[in-house]
Amino acid sequence: MKPLSREAGPRVFAIIVTLAMVAGLGLAFYLPSVAGNDLRFWLIAAWSGAREEQHATAPGTLVSPRVENGLGVNTFLEQEVEPSKRARTLSMARDAGFHWIRQEFRWEEIEPATKGEFLDPKFGNNTWEKYDQIVDTATVLGLEIIARLDTSPPWARPGNRHAFTPPERLDDYGDFVAAVASRYRGRLHYYQIWNEPNLSFEWGNQPVDAVATTELLKVAYTRIKAVDPSAVILAPALAPTLADGPGALNELVFLQQMYDAGAAAYFEIGSVQAYGLRDGPDDRRLGNGDVNFSRPLLFRALMVRNGDAAKPIWISEFGWNVPPPGHEGPYVYGNVTEDQQARYTVRALDRARTEWPWVGVMNLWYLKRADDREAGTLLAGFRLLDPDFTPRPVYGAVRDYAKRVGLL
Q: To the nearest whole number, what is the mean pLDDT of the chain?
């Protein structure tokens, strides 16, 4: 038999994998949906790997800032009432190998009632105290904080009851971020300006607006740098979506509109979410009519085209969802078992570490909530720890990964 040429080999392999995928997906269809995920995801990974699209991601370009330990996790420490529970949460983050936490510094909580007044109107206590303890404890434990600066107090958004509404006056937001940077100069070094502004419900249920987002970013960058020139500014974390309307806008379109509005000079780190959703960590398709873990490749290519090859991307949120028992759909965030969640998370970390040199910190969504009000909902299926601090399998898997790669 005549041997296959180098050119023919990959094509034949792709055909074989495609035929196997058709047969395998037929089998997976008859398996219980969760049990069939591993087979379906493996076939998709093999098929997409054989015909992976190439994008100009400038893998040889050194990005800055660089990090040695990029293992991060989202926290909700502001929800904990007891300081001891905040400290325990941070200790468990450190013990799992996390070096970074992405933590909200909620403007609506810190300056709630009146501009320039940092008092809780109900109890009269200083609203900085809780955040002081978060920063102090994280510092003692050697954890770096990505301070997510968003929400606005009612007085800054008259006529809109939604907390995630941009302020009526950008200077008010500028004063707030400057106050945060001034108070924590030398202890906080990384600031993220807003979250998912390409989704309407994260923008006050108003039409999304990349130009307005860029103006918010410019004000925040300028005011923080005036207080702390060494501070590092992360661009708003954009949500992956294929939507094209006022309620949600494709993050690639939104990012390009931000570049067109002059955003490049006002951030040092790009930021995007990278949820696995309905596919596994090795799904390499980028044009399959859905979003997946590989989508940051398109985000990176867009940054390169806009002259930002030297800037890293930090993944602000990623993970896989375990729906609650008895949930029959829809599976908005995907549908995996706890074991699959653990394995896919570790594989995602390995893939980013070995294939994406332009990725810095990867923040899992999320460590824990203070209480169980989300019990029985899909959102609870992302957490690493239950409210009573009971670890889920993904927590142990991340800890084992950290040990394996020398982070613990």
A: 92
